[in-house]
Each structure stands twice: as structure tokens, then as C-alpha cells.
Amino acid sequence: MKANVLISVCTLVAFSVAAEPTVAQKAYDPGASDTVIKIGNTVAYSGPASAYGTLGKADAAYFEMVNANGGVNGRKIEFISRDDAFSPPKTVEQTRRLVEEDRVLFMFNALGTAPNSAVQKYLNNAKVPQLFIAAGGRKFTDIANFPWTMALQPNFNIEAKIYAKFILNEHPDAKIAVLYQADDLGKDYLSGLKEGLGEKARTMIVGEVPYQITDATIDSQMVTLKATGANVFFSASTPKFAAQALRKAAELGWKPLHILTGGVSSVGAVLKPAGLENCIGAISATASKDVTDPKWHDDPGYLAWAAWMKKYYPQGDMSDGLNAGAYTASEVIVQVLKQAGDNLTRENVMKQALNLDFQPTMLLPGIRVKTTPTQSAPVTSMQLHRFDGKHWELFGDIITQ
């Protein structure tokens, strides 16, 4: 994948517009003109989180589709995606380059909690929208302190509380071992789990062990956690380490209930490398349709996604849910741009991002993207699902936190 990807799109799917496009004189900030909208992105095409590189490739493919269909309000999207290798110092370097040299209108779907944390103050001080980032830290839905930042997925704290509620209801005598990444991602999940368990956290959590994103393996951490005697294993990690944990647990003969966070539940990126047989019975939560589940394969939304994959991203893995996530994020940002009309200032783009109410193609029925000027978390609902060895099966009700 080249460091820069220049692409665009105007969708095959009909969007329900939550706000009328601005009917006023044309207004532009850097990155916008009568013909082009420049969008910036950083993602790990290399390094320990490179499995997430497909997000940038899929975004580029979606915008290619948009451009092939005439663009957004007659403008083509120029998508400039740079590799930061999941390294916060590189994220700072590449983001400054995108804003100050490439002069993008806004940042979109940049990957990672620590990388996005490293540039959040810079982008907010510069009043450059940091939109629909691929991260779930609580700070990314803190509109009071960071009014130019928005994530798309439910934040990690919300998600962890959903798992805590499940454990309390279904496994009230659980002994929980936690593997967590030693950064804001892991710490947010761990704090959310403890908050969700309440007073019982002190007795139910019998082991919590961190790892560094630069570690080669987490073998020693898994040996330590197995020794706790835990029968529930909570993995607050990224794809490489989630796959390692599933594999190592099987090698050790340790068979706890394995809870995977939504960001590491991809069949293609995580479960296949771990060995599908080692993942049977794992629990996770999702807001999206599982691309491997046959129940969706006649669904109009899935069919539109599959047709797009085959035409615009044929090298992408059809079993990788990350590609559905990128499709959703790109669909949402196109909706924002449609609503912005000819007023392509950063202020108006942010205003439209905070005025959304529609159903993206690949989100579960009943889970909508909805924002207001005081509520910047677009998705706050998820549903639990269990892996049966081939795909994820939904169970229970949609849970809103």
C-alpha cells in the first residue's frame, strides 16, 4: 500500500438526509473547492497493528466508488492516507503534514487510541475536525473539552460495561483474568469492566496483566493469567495479541470463557490466525452485521457491501469485519458532506457531524447513527454474539448504555 492514497466516491446506497444541504453562498476552508474535497487519514499499514491497515484501503475503495458515481455534491474526494505504524510520534508527524502541507479539510477514521490521543489537542487547537476515528477512548466523545473530535464506535468504557453486565447475569461466580494493552485502550476497557462489576470487581477479577504494543508475544502474560485459576478471560487488546492469546490459551490447555472486544472480533483478521477451533464459544459485542453470518447474505445492505467489495476492493478479505466497519465510517462521512452542501468550512462540517440521524447499511437493524450538538457519540448500542466455529451468532437484546 502506498503511503498516500488519492481517491473518491458518491454512493450506491440511498442515504436518508437528516438535515437539508446548506443553501447559501459557497464557502470553503483549506481542502475544499468547487471540484475537490481533501480528506486526511493515518493508519497502521506497517508495524504491530498492521492488520488494521485494511481500514485505510477500504476507505480508499469506498471513495473510489463515490467518485465513480459523480462525487459528493459534484465534488470528487481526494483521500490522503499515510502510514503511522501505530506509533504516536509518527502520527503527530504525519497528521501535521496532512494539515499543514497537504491542507486537508479534516481528518477521518484515523486509527488507534494512543495515536489519536497524541494529536487530539493539536487538531482541536487548530479547529480541524477529527472525525469518526477508529478508536473508542472516552476522551473521543468528550465534546465539552474536545469539540472538534468524534469517534464512531461505542467507546471502550461503554462496551466493557456491557460485558460486565453479561458476566454478572450469566456467570455470577466468575473468576476473571484480564490481559490489557498498556495504553489508553487497555486502561479504558479495564476501568469500564471494573465500573460495570461494581463492588464485585475486587473479588471477581483475580488477575490483570499488561503488555506493550511493541512486545513480540504475550506468552509469559498468558502463563501468569492461567495460574490465577480464572474461568473467564477478558482480552483488551489489538488483533495480533488477541490472536496470540486465543492460540496460547489452547496450547496451555486453559479453557476459560473468552471475551473479545469488538475491535478484535474479526473472523479474518483475528479468529482465523488464532485457529477457528480455538475460538468456539468466545463472546463479543457488536453494532454491525457479521459479514460471515449466512443470515445476512440475502440482506440488501450486505448485498450492497459485497458488491462494493468485489468491484472496488477485490483484494480485501470478505471475512474481515474491519472492511464492513470502514464501509460504515465512509458512508457516514459522505452523509456529513452531503448535508454540508456548498458550505465546506471546517465549522460547518463539524456542525453537520453533530446533526445526524440515519441507519447505515451495515449496522444492525435498530442501531442508528444519531448525534446532536450536545451528544457526540454516534453509536451507543451493541448486541452480544457468540462464535460457533464458523461465524458469530447474535443473542439477547440490543443493549444501550
Folded structure, characterized:
The protein is α/β, with parallel strands linked by helices. The chain has two domains: 27-154 and 296-380, Rossmann fold, CATH 3.40.50; 156-286, Rossmann fold (3-Layer(aba) Sandwich). Helices cover 36% and strands 18% of the residues. It has helices at 53-68, 88-100, 113-126, 156-170, 184-197, 201-204, 219-226, 239-251, 267-274, 300-312, 321-340, 346-353; strands at residues 27-28, 36-43, 76-83, 106-108, 130-133, 149-151, 176-181, 205-211, 232-236, 257-260, 283-286, 343-344, 357-358, 369-370, 381-387, 392-394, 399-400. The strands form five sheets. It has a five-stranded parallel sheet with strand order 3-2-4-5-6, sandwiched between helices. A four-stranded parallel sheet has the order 8-7-9-10, with helices on both faces. Strands 11, 15, 16 and 17 form a four-stranded antiparallel sheet that branches. Strand 2, helix 1 (53-68) and strand 3 form a beta-alpha-beta unit. Helix 1 packs across helix 11 (321-340), helix 7 packs across helix 8 and helix 11 (321-340) packs across helix 12. The longest helix is centred in the last third of the chain and has 20 residues, at 321-340.
Kindly provide the name of the CATH class of the largest domain.
Alpha Beta
The CATH topology of the largest domain turns out to be Rossmann fold
What radius of gyration results from the CA coordinates? 20 Å
The CATH superfamily name of the largest domain is Response regulator
Order of helices and strands: EEHEHEHEEHEHHEHEHEHEHHEHEEEEE
Q: Could you give the count of β-strands?
A: 17
Q: Quickly count the domains.
A: 2
Structural class: alpha/beta
How do the strands of the widest beta sheet line up side by side?
A: 3-2-4-5-6
Strand content: 15-25%
Helix content: 25-40%
